[in-house]
User: Fold DUF35 domain-containing protein from Nitrosopumilus maritimus.
Amino acid sequence: MIFEEEISKGNFSIPECTICKKIVWPPIEFCDTCMGKTSLKKGDFQGKIIEFSKQNEDYFCIVEIEDSFRIMAKMSKEPEIDQIVKISKCGMNEGNYFFEVS
Assistant:
C-alpha cells in the first residue's frame, strides 16, 4: 500500500477518497463508504490531545487528527488535554505504525 511506503520514509499523509472526499482510517486503498479509490492527502496536519498517560519518562497520548480519527502517539514533554499538536516523527517498526507529536 502506498500509505505504508510513505510512512516508512517518515512522511505522514492521510488517505482520502477521490470520489466522496471522506478521510479513510485505518488506511486502505478503497473507501469504506463508496468503494472509490483513495489517494494520499499531504499536509501539515494538526491534532488535539484527548487523553494521555505516562510510563517512565515518556508520555503516550490519544490524538484526534483533523477532527476525524484518533491515533496513539508518544510525546517527550508533559502534554495537556485539548493541546494542539503536530506529528513530528512517524514510521514503521516491525510492521506497526508509530507516531510522535510535539
Remarks:
- The chain has two domains: 1-43, 45-102.
